[in-house]
Fold this sequence. Notes:
The protein is mostly helical. It has helices at residues 2-29, 36-50, 58-87, 89-110, 119-131, 136-141, 143-149, 152-162, 169-190, 192-197, 199-221, 225-239, 264-276, 280-283, 287-301, 307-324, 330-341; strands spanning 246-250, 258-262.
Amino acid sequence: xxETWNSTIYESIKQKLLDSAIKLxxxxxxxxxxxSQLVIGVRESCVNLSTLSEKSFRIxxxxxxxxxxxxxxSFYRIRIDEYIQKHGIRSYMQxxxxxxxxxxxxxxxxxxxxPEFNSVPKLMKVCLKTFVVDYMDHILSEVPRLLxxxxxxxxxxxxxxxxxxxxxxxxLLVLLEEYIRQTGLKDIRTNAExxxxxxxxxxxxxLNLYVRFSRMVNDAxxxxxxxxxxxxxxxxDIVNNTSVFVTEIPTSVCSGISRVESRCPELLAxxxxxxxxxxxxxxxxxxxxxxxxxxxxxxxLKYVNSKDIFMRVHKSHLTRRLILETSADNEMEELMAGRLxx
Length: 342
């Protein structure tokens, strides 16, 4: 029966059926209400004919599936450039995500979902190229401005698009890392004079930068491990930068040769001393506040390259506190020592 239908009827009307089905789908994309069963009926006819023999498997693929995928691509090719020209690339990011979701839902409704046909993944691969891959340069060109504005909502849309193309994610990572590095160093240079005179302000400034960039990675990039790593690399460069807070450390007693190092470990150790000895800073803080600030020091210290410098200066301050009996809280001293050993 199916063989007779295929040879005597279907072959003579298939193009008209396919054109009618595709036209209905186009109308639906344009917002019109259609009878979806008419489209499904054409698909089912092609699928049923494809079960006649292994060779006939191509009837659905070469006719309905091929027409569906090609018409989807051509439908949006015209509209995407018009949309970007009229609304801009930022609005397009939301548009692209919306259309990708719509087309996936539509594909599940109208294409064959049996695994052996693999129709939906094929369609979505074409959609991804049409909406994202072919416009990747446009999308990424907007990222520096979005980072500068700290527009996490728009950055999240950008991330959701770029993340669908694994081979392109490194380009977004590079932009984020460079933004964090340059923004952090600019902030440090702008406030260098104040920070150098006040270790408390120095540590608070570094911590605020860490919190600021961490919030961005969470809100815009869903705490993606790759983006957390980019944050860490850039923040480490900020902490260890020698263009602002620099000191020279002798490589040996006899050689007379010294190496250039960031003053960060020295300033962190001095800040710990302010918190742990009897000082105006210590007296105005509660025990919980002191403990939290020491935790903050340890967080920044994690990114310091020359931890040996911190330990040397910290031990020197500790020795002085013990000799002069100026430690404000022995339990806090032991707590800090224990955390440094970990």
